[in-house]
């Protein structure tokens, strides 16, 4: 690879935040490297400075405290697959982690990196959106929390200030009646970029839905929530007609484009198919409990 | 102003010092040091030919900066065994014809070793999952799965014998 | 399938080395990371090279300013077309051709006209790869776009932009046999469909790489990963040195599949070494590799078949248009393979084939495993299913009524000299699918079969030869020398096994020295499934000649007749009296004292023929053909279009297995290549610009995608290769893609006529079928 940048490797979080505070926009945080280095090599980005977080060990780890599951920003996709807590509190996230890239990229890629890369095809983001996840941003100025649903504002653009670092991703422990899943539709089964990704989380009270989250990947400039579809389900009885209406609403609200993997038309239809499938699968899982 | 810096990498149990700029990948640095058993196939994490163990876990060395790899234990295929004293995976890949052109083999065996360190008795499905970042164009993977299973059994038996 | 036929597939007990699943001689080094590949060699004082490429597919080069790049400290040289006037490189078939070369040369660097995206503009050599890259970015290029043509059918139209020459037609082949009109008149049904096949990238794991230097005899020496060291002549011509002053040394190749059959880095390396007089290394990046070698030809194949109600094919008319891309390369030959194999392994008495390869401003197309036979198979096997459906006959039954049988003539009127066991292979593969998997919900299960006729050995009008040298040392070890390149299929190991079998030594006692254009006897290309057939025979003949001499001395020493001499497991003895014997090492020592010649150089010649009749296409095109079949069971999600391969069974007559593990490996790999071709591999071009230049866009099957592949290996012992063997490198892939296409059509009741059969194409085909099935709107 050929590029010209400085590399800073802080030993702990305060050092990292301090360095980022000084470098600001000129610096790009580097964690797993599976996006940033690819982008540098292809000359999509040309940062003056990389801030390698490899020694900031306190950013790695999974905790469950006070009704919230918190992932340190450097928790890897592989860590998600090995975690009993994540398996229990975010099975859809585990499904996404399982089909995420190839094994060695899973070993390196981090949750925060997947959020920060801003790709509409970032596989971890739809399940995290469905969990009502929050992003913790830290800087020398302090910390703030932002709903993940508000984090991305447009294609490759987000609300992180130049001196801020994503330090954690967290979500509330899901209610006992929450069921859902994730499905990645791609052009091959291993290590592929997503054509359409859908995550669903439904609170099921008898036949009624008391909470609905439907999140879509690769069908809009950013991973998105299908809020109209959610609204059609919440408080309603989940009849086949209602599910079909929600699927149709999700198809309506997404805005997929044509690219080398698929046409927008196909992606839109797949949103309909997958949303209905995942809702039905959630109902079925609930009925088995 | 040169950004070059001397770094020490711990490769196959030995420290090795090299002077490289920050953009030098671990893949490039290792090959520069003569570890040409680490193969370059795509330089962007798609093919897995450059896999090495970093602190016991498989990583693509093309997406790791050399400077970031200091202080970590790096193992290449040659670090696992030799023709005189092969690792069970090397033996089974050789015996069963799991290497054809052999170019994916270093990364493939490293990924398999990483799997067997965390799961000594994987199912075929788990093997497929663990090798999903390693492309092969010659073998159709069929003999590779067999070789990993064979080596796993050999390693389990050796473990029980101890 | 009778019991006696099954016996043919049993392990062959006559041999001590042949047919066994022995560890290949190259395996231990590869499994332990000890094997050096071409990219692993370095030299003191070595320079690093880069290539600057055009980023338009059709343009005029207005300005190329390399002054800033040349001025960069550490840059040894920057070369453009201006530095090498009138230098071009032959893109024709290399080696011992029986024909005059085609006039198909490509400029080494663009002088004026850019004809494809990625065409090389300048070469850079510098002290480090970083400096070379920096210099590349400093070169200023002005390209003026000119209208190009990107669709071969458009390129055929009057007024279309001409890529080169006077029109865009690169090659035309005709095959005519019988009376086509009478054949169609005799048919009860005529079935007509057009099948579309895509570009395919070889996707070998080792990108093109080489190292060149000038040796003490002023020989430009190039260590390179190639299938064809015989390109030394073309490279020597390109750089203007005598043929004996250019040496190409191969290395074990990290995958070829036809993609390392043409010249890649060699010319650039030779020029740079010549200019700088220093060692130079050039390695393509993966993205460059996508631009740096020819692809499989996309083709449009229109099939019109006449069939009777009884299931007999009465006539077949085939029209083929192939996209040759911007330069000729091997297009005429690839197209010929397609034409010859157009009817496949089926009897067609009334035949017309009209095939054209057309120049466009797309990436040039050239050799790829299957070499035109693949595209034909993709069409004829799908057409067989369509014909069976049209007359309401079981697909297997319809095929059985039309398969060529041993002794039948193929399309060109030529009768293959070996067994034609297609029917046996197809039946065995089909049966091995076992009990059907049930369909569930939106997921439908389907099955498909494909068979193949695929030549092994090069076109016979090329007058192909191969040489090998076999010698035995004083300690009883054996040396084989042959130019053959080993591209991963165990080509060198097979020679070792053949020499070991004949000379009666064990495999570890044989060492093969190969792949050096000036030191090892030239063996021809490792292409066309010919290495075992041609070089294996050369090694067999050489080893046999040597054995005869050794046996004569042994007979004398042991007081027996030479016909009684047995050489096996490093010992020589008398048949029926095994105690009367000695070690082969001791025998060789005696030979040494007697001055017996302990080596033998042999040449093997394929059949030499003239070209096919240009009007009728009748005559002999290839030495022989291999036959086999592939059966597939797949699941199709009818809502998403996703396809999962559930079962995959290959049955091939390999003539005689030399190494069972290697044969299985070829079949597994051929299956992977075929599944990718059918389902996921797609090179997308926009105005000739490749938009899928990496392994994250160009999707070869991964470990998660590959099914288990069952192999059924038949041995007719009728092939032209050593011990009756045939080739298996290409045949293993040929029937796979149509079997998949047929399985998908079987599952969903709709055929998708264009590969790759992506989820979206499946979904679209189903949508359209549903629309067709809907009753027309009321009130109309």
Structure described in brief:
The complex is a heterotrimer of chains A (about 290), B (about 160) and C (about 775). With about 290 residues, chain A is of the alpha+beta class. In chain A, about 35% of the residues lie in helices and about 25% in strands.
Secondary structure layout:
The complex is a heterotrimer of chains A (289), B (162) and C (780).
Chain A: E1 6-8, H1 13-23, E2 27-30, H2 36-41, E3 49-52, E4 62-65, E5 68-72, H3 77-82, H4 84-89, H5 91-98, H6 103-108, H7 111-116, H8 125-130, E6 134-139, E7 142-147, H9 148-151, E8 152-154, E9 157-158, E10 165-172, E11 178-185, E12 196-205, E13 208-217, E14 224-225, H10 227-233, H11 240-253, H12 264-288
Chain B: E1 5-11, E2 14-20, H1 26-32, E3 51-54, E4 57-60, E5 73-75, H2 77-80, H3 88-96, H4 105-118, H5 124-130, H6 142-161
Parallel strand pairs in B: 1-5
Antiparallel strand pairs in B: 1-2, 3-4, 3-5
Chain C: H1 3-7, H2 27-31, E1 47-53, E2 59-65, H3 67-71, E3 75-80, E4 88-89, E5 106-107, E6 113-114, E7 120-126, H4 129-138, E8 140-145, H5 152-156, E9 169-177, H6 180-185, E10 189-197, E11 209-214, E12 220-224, H7 232-239, E13 246-249, H8 266-276, E14 280-283, H9 286-292, E15 299-307, E16 313-325, H10 331-340, E17 351-359, H11 373-391, H12 395-400, H13 422-432, E18 443-456, E19 465-472, E20 478-482, H14 491-503, E21 510-514, H15 531-558, E22 565-568, E23 571-574, E24 577-583, H16 584-593, E25 599-605, E26 624-637, E27 643-653, H17 660-679, E28 685-686, E29 689-690, E30 709-714, H18 736-748, H19 759-773
Parallel strand pairs in C: 1-14, 12-13, 16-17, 20-21, 27-30
Antiparallel strand pairs in C: 1-7, 2-6, 2-8, 3-7, 4-5, 9-17, 10-15, 11-12, 11-14, 15-16, 18-26, 19-20, 19-25, 22-23, 23-24, 26-27, 28-29
The gyration radius over C-alpha positions of chain C equals 27 Å
* CATH-defined topology of the largest domain in chain B: DNA polymerase, domain 1
Q: What portion of the residues of chain C fall into strands of 2 or more residues?
A: 25-35%
Whole-number radius of gyration of chain B?
16 Å
Sheet of most strands of chain C:
7 strands, mixed
- DSSP helix fraction of chain B: 25-40%
Structural class of chain C: alpha+beta
Overall geometric form of chain C: globular
Number of domains of chain B: 2
Structural class of chain B: alpha+beta
The named CATH superfamily of the domain at 1-13 and 409-459 and 621-780 in chain C: Aldehyde oxidase/xanthine dehydrogenase, molybdopterin binding domain
Helical fraction of chain C equals 25-40%
Query: In CATH's first tier, which class of the largest domain in chain B applies?
Result: Mainly Alpha
The helix/strand series of chain B, from N terminus to C terminus, equals EEHEEEHHHHH
Overall 3D shape of chain B = globular
Order of strands across the main sheet of chain C: 3-7-1-14-11-12-13
The count of strands of chain B amounts to 5
Share of β-strand residues of chain B: 15-25%
Broad CATH class of the domain at 1-13 and 409-459 and 621-780 in chain C: Alpha Beta
Please report the total strand number of chain C as a whole number: 30
Mean pLDDT of chain C: 94
């Amino acid at each position: 690879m050929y590029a010209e940048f400085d590399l800073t490797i802080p030993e702990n979080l305060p050092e990292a935040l301090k360095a980022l505070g000084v470098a600001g926009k000129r610096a790009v945080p580097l964690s797993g490297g599976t996006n940033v280095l690819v982008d540098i090599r292809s000359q999509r980005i040309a940062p003056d400075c990389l801030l390698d977080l490899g020694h900031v060990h306190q950013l790695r780890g999974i905790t469950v405290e006070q009704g919230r599951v918190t992932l340190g920003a450097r928790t890897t996709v592989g860590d998600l697959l090995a975690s009993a807590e994540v398996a229990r509190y975010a099975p859809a996230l585990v499904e996404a982690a399982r089909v995420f890239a190839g094994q060695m990229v899973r070993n390196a890629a981090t949750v925060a990196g997947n959020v920060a890369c801003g790709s509409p095809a970032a596989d971890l983001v739809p399940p995290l959106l469905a969990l009502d996840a929050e992003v913790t941003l830290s800087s020398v100025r302090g910390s703030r929390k932002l709903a993940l649903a508000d984090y991305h504002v447009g294609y490759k653009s987000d609300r992180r200030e130049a001196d801020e670092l994503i330090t954690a991703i967290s979500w509330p422990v899901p209610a006992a009646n929450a069921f859902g899943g994730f499905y990645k539709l791609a052009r091959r089964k291993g290590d592929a970029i997503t054509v359409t990704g859908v995550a669903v989380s439904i609170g099921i009270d008898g036949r009624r839905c008391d909470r609905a989250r439907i999140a879509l990947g690769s069908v809009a400039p950013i991973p998105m929530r299908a809020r109209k579809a959610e609204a059609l389900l919440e408080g309603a009885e989940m009849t086949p007609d209602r599910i079909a209406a929600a699927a149709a609403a999700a198809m309506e609200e997404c805005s997929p484009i044509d690219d080398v993997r698929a046409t927008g038309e196909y992606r839109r239809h797949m949103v309909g198919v997958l949303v209905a499938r995942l809702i039905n699968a959630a109902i079925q899982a609930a009925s088995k409990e | 102003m040169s950004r070059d810096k001397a770094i020490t990498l711990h490769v196959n149990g030995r420290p090795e010092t090299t002077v490289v700029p920050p953009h030098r990948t671990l893949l490039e640095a290792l090959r520069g040091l003569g570890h040409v058993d680490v193969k370059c196939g795509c330089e962007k994490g798609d093919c897995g030919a450059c896999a090495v163990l970093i602190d016991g876990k498989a990583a693509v060395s093309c997406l790791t900066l050399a400077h970031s790899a200091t202080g970590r234990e790096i193992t290449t295929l040659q670090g696992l065994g030799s023709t005189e004293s092969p690792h069970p995976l090397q033996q089974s890949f050789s015996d069963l014809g799991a290497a054809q052109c052999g170019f994916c083999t270093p990364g493939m065996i490293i990924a398999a070793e990483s799997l067997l360190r965390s799961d000594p008795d994987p199912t075929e499905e788990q093997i497929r999952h663990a090798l999903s970042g390693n492309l092969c164009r010659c073998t159709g993977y069929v003999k590779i799965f067999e070789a990993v299973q064979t080596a796993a059994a050999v390693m389990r038996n050796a473990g029980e014998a101890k | 399938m009778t019991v006696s036929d099954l016996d043919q597939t049993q392990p062959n007990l006559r041999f001590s080395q042949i047919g066994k699943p022995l560890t290949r001689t190259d395996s231990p080094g590869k499994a332990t990371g000890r094997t050096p590949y071409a990219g692993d060699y370095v030299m003191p004082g070595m320079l690093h090279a880069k290539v600057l490429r055009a980023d338009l597919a059709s343009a005029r080069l207005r300005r190329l300013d390399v002054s800033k790049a040349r001025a960069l400290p550490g840059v040894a040289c920057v070369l453009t077309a201006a530095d090498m006037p009138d230098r071009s490189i032959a893109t024709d078939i290399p080696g011992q051709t029986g024909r005059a070369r085609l006039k198909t040369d490509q400029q080494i660097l663009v002088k004026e006209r850019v004809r494809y995206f990625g065409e090389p503009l300048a070469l850079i050599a510098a002290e480090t790869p970083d400096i070379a890259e920096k210099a590349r970015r400093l070169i200023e290029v002005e390209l003026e776009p000119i209208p190009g043509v990107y669709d071969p059918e458009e390129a055929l139209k009057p007024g279309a932009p001409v890529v080169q020459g006077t029109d865009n037609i690169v090659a035309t082949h005709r095959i005519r046999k019988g009376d086509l009109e009478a054949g169609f008149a005799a048919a009860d049904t005529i079935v007509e469909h057009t099948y579309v096949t895509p570009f395919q990238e070889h996707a070998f794991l080792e990108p093109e790489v080489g190292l060149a230097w000038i040796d003490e005899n002023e020989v430009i020496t190039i260590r390179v990963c190639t299938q064809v060291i015989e390109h030394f002549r073309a490279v020597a011509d390109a750089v203007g040195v005598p043929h004996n002053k250019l040496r190409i040394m191969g290395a074990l190749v990290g995958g070829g599949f036809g993609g390392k059959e043409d010249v890649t880095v060699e010319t650039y390396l030779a020029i740079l070494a010549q200019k700088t007089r220093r060692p130079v290394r050039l390695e393509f990046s993966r993205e460059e590799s996508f631009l740096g070698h020819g692809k499989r030809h996309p083709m449009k194949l229109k099939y019109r078949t006449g069939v009777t109600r009884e299931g007999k094919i009465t006539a077949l008319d085939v029209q083929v248009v192939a996209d040759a891309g911007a330069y000729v390369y091997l297009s005429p030959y690839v197209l010929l393979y397609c034409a010859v194999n157009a009817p496949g392994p089926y009897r067609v008495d009334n035949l017309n084939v009209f095939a054209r390869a057309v120049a466009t401003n797309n990436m040039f197309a050239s050799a790829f495993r299957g070499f035109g036979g693949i595209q034909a198979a993709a069409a004829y096997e799908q057409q067989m299913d369509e014909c069976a459906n049209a007359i309401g006959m079981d697909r297997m039954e319809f095929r059985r009524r039309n398969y060529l049988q041993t002794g039948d003539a193929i399309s060109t009127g030529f009768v293959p000299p070996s067994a034609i066991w297609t029917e046996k292979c197809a039946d065995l593969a089909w049966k091995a699918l076992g009990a059907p998997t049930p369909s569930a919900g939106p997921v439908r299960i389907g099955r498909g079969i494909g068979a193949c006729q695929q030549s092994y050995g090069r076109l016979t009008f090329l007058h192909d030869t191969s040489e090998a040298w076999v010698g035995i040392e004083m300690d009883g070890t054996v040396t084989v020398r042959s130019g053959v390149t080993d591209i991963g299929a165990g080509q060198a190991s097979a020679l070792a096994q053949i020499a070991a079998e004949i000379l009666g030594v064990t495999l570890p006692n044989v060492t093969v020295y190969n792949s050096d254009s000036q030191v090892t006897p030239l063996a021809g290309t490792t292409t066309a499934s010919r290495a075992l057939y041609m070089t294996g025979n050369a090694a067999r003949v050489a080893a046999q000649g040597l054995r005869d001499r050794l046996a004569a001395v042994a007979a004398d020493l042991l007081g027996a007749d030479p016909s009684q001499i047995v050489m096996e497991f490093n010992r020589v003895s008398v048949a029926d009296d095994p105690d009367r014997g000695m070690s082969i090492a001791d025998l060789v020592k005696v030979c040494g004292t007697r001055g017996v010649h302990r080596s033998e150089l042999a040449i093997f010649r394929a059949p030499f023929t003239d070209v096919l009749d240009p009007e009728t296409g009748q005559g002999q095109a290839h030495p022989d053909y291999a036959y086999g079949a592939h059966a597939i069971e797949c699941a199709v999600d009818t809502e998403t279009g996703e396809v999962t391969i559930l079962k995959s069974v290959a049955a091939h007559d390999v003539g005689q297995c030399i190494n069972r593990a290697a044969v299985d490996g070829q079949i597994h790999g051929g299956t992977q290549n075929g599944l990718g071709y059918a389902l996921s591999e797609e090179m997308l071009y926009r105005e000739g610009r490749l938009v899928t230049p990496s392994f994250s866009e160009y999707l070869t099957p991964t470990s998660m995608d590959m099914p288990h592949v069952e192999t059924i290996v038949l041995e007719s012992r009728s092939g032209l290769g050593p011990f009756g063997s045939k080739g298996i490198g290409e045949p293993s892939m040929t029937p796979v893609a149509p079997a998949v296409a047929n399985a998908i059509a079987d599952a969903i009741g709709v055929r998708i006529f264009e590969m790759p059969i992506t989820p979206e194409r499946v979904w679209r085909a189903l949508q359209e079928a549903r629309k067709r099935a809907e009753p027309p709107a009321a009130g109309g």
